[in-house]
Amino acid sequence: METKQIKKIISCLAVILVVSMLAAADGRAWNWATHAYIDDHLGKSGPLRNMNEIYGGTGPDVFNFLFDHPDWFQYLYAQTHGFRVDSQEYDTFMKLWDAARLDLGKAEAFGFVSHNDVWGADSTAHHHGITFGQDEGYVIKKATQIQNLAATGAFDPLPALESLFPADTPDELKQAVALEFYHNLVEAAVDILVVRLDPMIGKKLAFSAILRSPEFPLLLVKAYGKQFADKVNIPYPEAVKVILASEKEFRKSMVLYGQALMQDENTAIELLAEQLADQAVSYLAGYGLTGYSAPDLVPIAKGYIEVAMEYCGPDYAHEIDATIEFVKGGLKSHHISY
To answer: Mapping DSSP to helix (H, G, I), strand (E, B) and coil, where does residue 315 land?
Structure first.
């Protein structure tokens, strides 16, 4: 691939990541197969309840694809994951647990709460890793490690992303945008590695979406609909429509994502790279930036997924196992059981 073309691709990715950083401070942390694996080791053993726990464990990311409305995404992401302001923690994700009444709804809410970014699974990825990255989170630390190595030319011909930004881009912004990109690729890489721990995880993820209780989208509406409508100044019926449509599309995407992970490893990497490229084009289109081709973005994404797999391979399983025990403790201490 010619240097000029690579520069165009990286510039495209830079815009995407600036947008995502404006929309939410951290983006995803652990990705969906990793959450599925964690939730498969929590809660009830009954197959239907377990499937609903797994789907619920991916549920806080239902609104991640609201590319056309980054302000809506920013608000709903904070509500479903919890957030910190001036050292204060806000457990807004508990609204869904409080709304659940029926057995399968409780199973979904159990998984949903396990995901949170305050004391749940995402917190070890973003804020305090247990076996690695104790000072900033496993995923963030790995992303920083890869970023630093890329700056030395360690992954040639893959370029260090910062070196390909326009010359007048502030260094601080180059670093931040590049780190967010490496962060996203680490998440995808760990999901591929999780399949090595459990070759059935893709099937479990897909079937969790297929078998999810119809109560889940109604719980999202009950927990977040009214306040969402008030916050973004839209009529309540429109807010309900946004929530239900988002969950419907997310459910479909979990089936497809699970199916991708059912393939052989090389094919799965290719499919995840294609998914990231498609999301990139959607981000750009949402901000009026068109003319970019998803196939052009795939080689960059694929190359860095493979790099991240190499650097996470030796210790990802230890961190995930430690996260499972950490989340078990958090659920117990917060009296989350059903």
So the answer is: coil
Does residue 218 lie within any of the structural domains?
A: yes
DSSP-assigned letters across all residues of 168-215: TS-HHHHHHHHHHHHHHHHHHHHHHHHHHH-TTHHHHHHHHHHT--TH
Domain assignment present for residue 248? The answer is: yes
Written as six digits, the tokens of 6 are: 């690579």
pLDDT tens, the chain, 338 aa long: 454 444 444 444 444 444 343 334 445 689 999 999 999 999 987 999 999 999 999 999 999 889 789 899 999 999 999 998 877 889 999 999 999 999 999 999 999 999 999 999 999 999 999 999 999 999 999 999 999 999 999 999 987 867 755 577 688 877 887 787 788 899 999 999 999 999 999 999 999 999 999 999 999 999 999 999 999 999 999 999 999 999 999 999 999 999 999 999 999 999 999 988 787 667 546 545 466 678 877 888 899 999 999 999 999 999 999 999 999 999 999 999 99
For 185, the domain range is: 3-333
338 in a structural domain? no
Tokens at 99, concatenated: 């709304």
Nearest-angstrom CA–CA distance, 164 and 179:
14
Q: In which element (H, E) is residue 329 found?
A: helix 316-333
Q: How far apart are CA 124 and CA 140, in angstroms?
A: 10
Domain count of the chain?
A: 1
* Cβ neighbours of residue 15 closer than 8 Å, sequence gap 6 or more: 283, 284, 287, 289
